Model the fold of this input.
Amino acid sequence: MINKKVTNVQEALVGVKNGMTFMLGGFGLCGIPENAISELVKLDIREVTCISNNAGVDDFGLGLLLQNKQIKKMISSYVGENDEFERQMLSGELEVELTPQGTLAEKCRAAQAGFPAFYTPAGYGTEVAEGKETRDFDGKMYVLEPAFKADFAFVKAWKGDAAGNLVFKGTSRNFNPNMCGAATITVAEVEELVPVGELDPNNVHVPGIFVQRIFQGKEYEKRIEQRTVRQKQ
Done:
């Protein structure tokens, strides 16, 4: 029986090195691989490129790597919640590649599916298209976007089994599934690790073939990025 379970996050991150490119799942602070990020901070991995929808907040998520000056380049679609990110970008300390959100998701999915590139209308006529091939399809212009190339993809799921099959919950299903299998090694941390055969195959969002290592995470904070409440009437 296939067993991709590793004992802990330390074993899951064996092989990470300075200068690598990492994909990190999640949307805002929802569904981010908290354990993997904390371990990257402890390992003090430097000069890395991070592909993620956003850069966390100042004291949580990828913001922890930014505070520690571990990230050389961020490839993101939304970065508006992080003051340290803004400071590093404006000072020239951090290289930033802003990517339309749908394009970011598709660049992950293309890598997952083995496609080297794809055409999209998003970004045509803007700075996003500068230096890229463009082409007319039926009178509409498209931009050729290359798929991502990453060394590790770190994702977080609600449930998983030792074979690597994953089930996501709610908003965490946004970028996490597309990043599975889109890197040389995909590491999945889960809230609940169940025996093989316990997951309903009809409810599996990502099959285990896209995952190389899986472990049960712990001590999830699950912070809310912006808590807003209605005033009591």
In short: The CA atoms of residues 122 and 186 lie 28 Å apart.
